From TrEMBL:
UniProt source species: Streptomyces thermocarboxydus
Name the UniProt record assigns to this protein: HAD family phosphatase
Lineage start: Bacteria, Bacillati, Actinomycetota, Actinomycetes, Kitasatosporales
PANTHER family hit by this protein: 2-DEOXYGLUCOSE-6-PHOSPHATE PHOSPHATASE 2 (PTHR18901), PSEUDOURIDINE-5'-PHOSPHATASE (PTHR18901:SF38)
SUPFAM superfamilies: HAD-like
Pfam families xrefs: HAD_2
Length: 237
């Protein structure tokens, strides 16, 4: 057991641990272009941040009147994404530092993501995060993606943890909602700064409105442990 007792930490992947949203946007843009939908914009992509690939594509079919099946579109988008992700995916430096600090303290950790299992494994292995994050759950493995709590509850189950002892680290409003629904505390680091005022983020125990530019491993650790100086820094952010 860690020095923090029964604490476990569950990380979202895309936009939280790694800056993969540009790859997901480009994969989506290429996929839609193949099916006759040109000019998919970053602003349009932002509405899907934090929502699983499968649920995103189900919405695309309705929104753009696509006749191809969800399975076909998922396969095409994943192919584009995996090709892009293999080139380079950047880990947010302070997030890597936080993962390493938690690992040093023996805190059990997992990843719970809306990405496919193949994409999660590729990113974790390619960035070296798999050295510490050996438990991973894809939304494809549960009944409902975020904002439903399923993926976080499954991560807790695999860790052998009580949801009440888990802290989620998330960048998106659906993920913050999912953490709250799972009965877990949440550190929210909004990827889309304009969404920091979303009501879902109000449920977070620690909300860093400036996103990754405000997140530090020290402040997050201080909030978890109640270390006075570091916790005060986190609350002021």
């Amino acid at each position: 057991m860690s020095t923090l007792g029964t604490l476990s930490v569950v990380f979202d992947l895309d936009g939280t641990l790694v800056d993969s949203e540009p790859h997901y946007y480009e994969a989506g843009r290429r996929t839609l272009a193949e099916y006759g939908v040109p000019d998919f914009s970053w602003a349009e992509h932002e509405r899907y941040v934090g929502i699983s690939t499968r649920e995103t594509i189900a919405d695309w079919r309705r929104r753009y009147g696509l006749s191809a099946s969800v399975d076909e579109l998922v396969a095409v988008k994943n192919r584009h994404y995996l090709k892009l992700a293999r080139t380079k995916t950047t880990v947010f430096p302070e997030m890597r530092a936080f993962v390493e600090r938690l690992a040093d303290e023996g805190v059990p950790m997992a990843v719970a993501s809306g990405s496919s299992a193949e994409a999660i494994d590729l990113i974790l292995a390619g960035t070296g995060l798999d050295a510490h994050l050996r438990t991973a759950v894809s939304a494809d493995e549960v009944a409902h993606g975020k904002p439903a709590p399923d993926v976080f509850l499954e991560a807790a189950r695999r860790l052998g943890a009580d949801p009440a002892d888990c802290v989620v680290v998330e960048d998106a409003a659906p993920g913050a909602a999912a953490a709250h629904a799972a009965g877990m505390r949440c550190i929210a680091v909004p990827y889309v700064a304009a969404q920091a005022g979303a009501p879902e983020f109000a449920t977070a125990g620690l909300l860093l409105r400036g996103g990754q530019s405000e997140f530090t491993a020290r402040a997050a650790w201080g909030w978890l442990t109640g270390t006075a100086a570091d916790a005060d820094t986190a609350r002021r952010s």
